[in-house]
What does this fold into?
Amino acid sequence: MREIAVIEAVDISQFKKTDNVLNNSEWLLVVKSQDQLERRRRMLESRKGGKIGRVNERPTSIGLLASVTLQDGMCVLQDSKEFREPRHIRRHPEHGYLITEIDCVKWIDDRGRVIREYRHPFFAFLHTIDLSPNGKRMLIVSSGYDACFEIEIETGDVTWEWFAWDHGFNPDGEDFWLAANIEQYQQYLAQKKKTLLIDPAQYGEQGLVTARRTAHPNVAMYDHYGESGDILLSIAHDGRIYRVKQDGGDAVCVCDCLSQMPHGLQPYRDGWLMTNTTLGEWWHFSVDWEPIFRASLTSLGGKVEGTEEVEWVQQVVAVHDGLLLCLDANRGLIGVDMCQRAYTLYQVHPNWCIQDAMPSKRTFEHNCTVDGSRILDVLS
It folds into this structure.
């Protein structure tokens, strides 16, 4: 791995606080659960022990796909539809949306009605979806089993699968070598290794608990800049980004300057935008993963009491060149205008655990402008 140059972070707290960055814009918010206060309490407790991630089973939460307007410092709810731990959303190539639930992907129409479901035995704790450049396939991260799957949208057939356990992310924290199939399991046994054959029928919709997973992939994206068909994969446990070859599945680290649990990988300005979640930052990288820019929210006020020393910026969504929406678990939603050096804080429901955001379709239909700049749909 090459040496990464240290770049100084731009301090967003030094920007001007205003009331109009992203004001009156409409959004779809993916709310993973409606128990943020309790989740925050558990997270703070686990941090005391130096661990990040769930160590015990828990009930699956009911979340929301919420249509909201950002207005006068508030996140105003317009409409919502319940889903079981949704985490990510993409526009469907034809119409409507693709949204992940805990153990399936749902194709829904504009009113949230389910058109079709996509399921697989190893779907658990699903995170992101990405569409292939031709729009015919989708890439799905199954964090619950340290896996990634490519699915043909029309047929639902699996066209590619990747398990971290088979590509260098083994053993687990208790020195068990995990295997997804009997052949690999038998090979580990022959090598005298402590081995565990993972049968999804024995675990359920959340898969392995977070702390037991060997990798916890949380983002997968096609390399939209190249023609190689490579996959970019964020491994949350070590905070690194890997380039994965679909032919063979080899994983090569391309970025190792982030902390644990980064999120929100997306194309941005002929490169990549990545949220450094647990350090309250976002980074802009070149297409070759050279750091270009880094910004920090750590000195910004407005945090929930008790979280003064803890950062959790779920992701930063680019909506236009220099205009971003930050999903901050401890501050709310933050509109940032890098060009005008300004920011606006929007309060959200205190129990909403927001995982993803997308500018609403209506915003584009009405050719809406935000502070004089047309919003670009960078998510589709």
